[in-house]
C-alpha cells in the first residue's frame, strides 16, 4: 500500500479536523502518500481529490467543521455510483480510504471494501449513536455547547419564573439530552428511549413551584420532538409561562473540546495503523478509554445499551 485517502461524510462534527490531521500526519510518518477527498462520497465520484502534506493540516486542530467539507450523495447509493467511485480511486492510485462519519458513511465504506478498496471508518457524529464505541467524535463538544445554552437560559428563566424547554439534537439517541440534563441540573429529561407522561410532567412542574422553585428546566431530545406542542400543553395545564428553545445546528459548530481533539487524534492514528497492516472494512472506536476496532458489519449490528444508571441519577437529582 502506497497511497491512502481521507474523507468526511454526512453531518459535520467538531473534531473532524483533528481526525483528518491525525490521519494525514500519521500516514506521512509511515511513508504513505496521503490524499484528501472533498465533499464526501459526492466529491469522490466527481474526482475532487488533492494531495495533502503536513502543512495542509497545520492550524486546524482547534477548528470546528471539516476542512474537507461534507455532503450527502444519492448517486453513491447506486451500484453505478459506487463503481464510478472505485474507478476514481484507482485512477489516483489510492489503495486505502479512511471515512469519517456516522452509520450511513460506514455502510458506504463497507460497500467499497467489497469492491476491493481497503476502508477504515472513524465515528464522526455528535449524536453518540454508534453502539460499538463509548463516545463518538463531536459528542463532547456538542454536549458542552448545550450546557452553555442551558446556563444562559437558566438565568432568564429564573428572572421570569418560567418553564424552559430546550430541544437538543441526537436523532433517536437521547445521550445529548441525558448528559446535558445531568450536567445542567435539569428538572426533567425527555428522551426517545423512555416513555413519558405529559400529565406527570405537568404535576412535577407544579410541585416544584409549590416547593418554591423559581424556574423549571426541561431537556427534550429531538427524537421525541414537539417542543412547541409540549410548551403549549404545559402552559395550558399549569398556567405557568413556558418558553421553548430549539438549539438546532449550533450544536454542530464551535471549537472542539480537549476530549474530542484527543479522541479524534487517537482514532485517526489507529486507522492508519490498520491500513498499514492491510486491514479493511473495520471501524475504530473507544471502550473503557482503550482504542478498539471491529468489522463494520459487526459494529453496525450491535444494539445500543441504554444507560439506566445515568437516567436514574437524572431523575433522583432533579427533585
Automatic annotation (TrEMBL):
Q: List residues binding ADP.
A: 21-25, 154, 185-187, 211, 213-215
Any idea where this protein resides? Cytoplasm
Please explain the role this protein plays, according to its UniProt record. Answer: Catalyzes the phosphorylation of D-fructose 6-phosphate to fructose 1,6-bisphosphate by ATP, the first committing step of glycolysis.
Query: Keywords in UniProt for this one?
Result: Allosteric enzyme, ATP-binding, Cytoplasm, Glycolysis, Kinase, Magnesium, Metal-binding, Nucleotide-binding, Transferase
One GO term under biological process is: fructose 6-phosphate metabolic process
User: Which residues does the annotation say bind Mg(2+)?
Assistant: 103
- Family membership: Belongs to the phosphofructokinase type A (PFKA) family. ATP-dependent PFK group I subfamily. Prokaryotic clade 'B1' sub-subfamily.
Q: Which reaction does it catalyse?
A: beta-D-fructose 6-phosphate + ATP = beta-D-fructose 1,6-bisphosphate + ADP + H(+)
Which cofactors is this protein said to need? Answer: Mg(2+)
In its UniProt entry, what is this protein called?
Answer: ATP-dependent 6-phosphofructokinase
- Annotated ATP binding lies at 11, 72-73, 102-105
Gene name, Swiss-Prot/TrEMBL: pfkA
Pathway note: Carbohydrate degradation; glycolysis; D-glyceraldehyde 3-phosphate and glycerone phosphate from D-glucose: step 3/4
Q: Where does substrate bind?
A: 125-127, 162, 169-171, 222, 243, 249-252
Per UniProt, activity regulation is: Allosterically activated by ADP and other diphosphonucleosides, and allosterically inhibited by phosphoenolpyruvate.
Q: Which GO terms describe its cellular component?
A: 6-phosphofructokinase complex
Residues forming the catalytic site: 127
Amino acid at each position: 500500500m502506497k497511497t491512502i485517502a481521507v474523507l468526511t461524510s454526512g453531518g459535520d462534527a467538531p473534531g473532524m479536523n483533528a481526525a483528518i490531521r491525525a490521519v494525514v500526519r500519521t500516514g506521512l510518518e509511515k511513508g504513505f502518500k496521503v490524499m484528501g477527498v472533498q465533499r464526501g462520497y459526492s466529491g469522490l465520484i466527481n474526482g475532487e481529490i488533492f494531495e495533502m502534506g503536513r502543512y495542509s493540516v497545520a492550524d486546524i486542530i482547534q477548528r470546528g467543521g471539516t476542512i474537507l467539507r461534507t455532503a450527502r450523495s444519492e448517486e453513491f447509493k447506486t451500484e453505478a455510483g459506487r463503481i464510478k467511485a472505485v474507478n476514481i480511486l484507482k485512477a489516483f492510485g489510492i489503495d486505502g480510504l479512511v471515512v469519517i462519519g456516522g452509520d450511513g458513511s460506514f455502510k458506504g465504506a463497507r460497500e467499497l471494501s467489497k469492491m476491493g478498496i481497503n476502508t477504515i471508518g472513524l465515528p464522526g457524529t455528535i449524536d453518540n449513536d454508534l453502539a460499538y464505541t463509548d463516545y463518538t467524535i463531536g459528542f463532547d463538544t456538542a454536549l458542552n455547547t448545550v450546557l452553555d445554552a442551558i446556563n444562559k437560559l437558566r438565568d432568564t428563566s429564573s428572572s421570569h419564573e418560567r418553564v424552559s424547554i430546550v430541544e437538543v439534537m441526537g436523532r433517536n439517541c437521547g445521550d445529548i439530552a441525558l448528559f446535558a440534563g445531568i450536567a445542567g441540573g435539569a428538572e426533567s429529561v425527555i428522551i426517545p428511549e423512555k416513555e413519558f407522561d405529559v400529565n406527570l410532567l405537568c404535576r412535577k412542574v407544579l410541585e416544584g413551584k409549590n416547593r418554591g422553585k423559581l424556574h423549571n428546566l426541561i431537556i427534550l431530545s429531538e427524537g421525541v420532538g414537539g417542543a412547541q406542542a409540549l410548551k403549549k400543553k404545559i402552559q395550558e395545564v399549569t398556567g405557568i409561562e413556558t418558553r421553548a428553545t430549539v438549539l438546532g445546528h449550533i450544536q454542530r459548530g464551535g471549537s472542539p473540546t480537549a476530549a474530542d481533539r484527543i479522541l479524534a487524534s487517537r482514532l485517526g492514528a489507529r486507522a492508519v495503523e490498520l491500513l498499514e497492516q492491510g486491514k479493511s472494512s473495520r471501524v475504530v472506536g473507544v471502550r473503557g478509554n482503550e482504542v478498539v476496532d471491529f468489522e463494520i458489519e459487526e459494529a453496525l449490528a450491535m444494539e445500543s445499551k441504554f444507560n439506566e444508571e445515568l437516567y436514574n441519577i437524572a431523575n433522583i437529582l432533579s427533585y
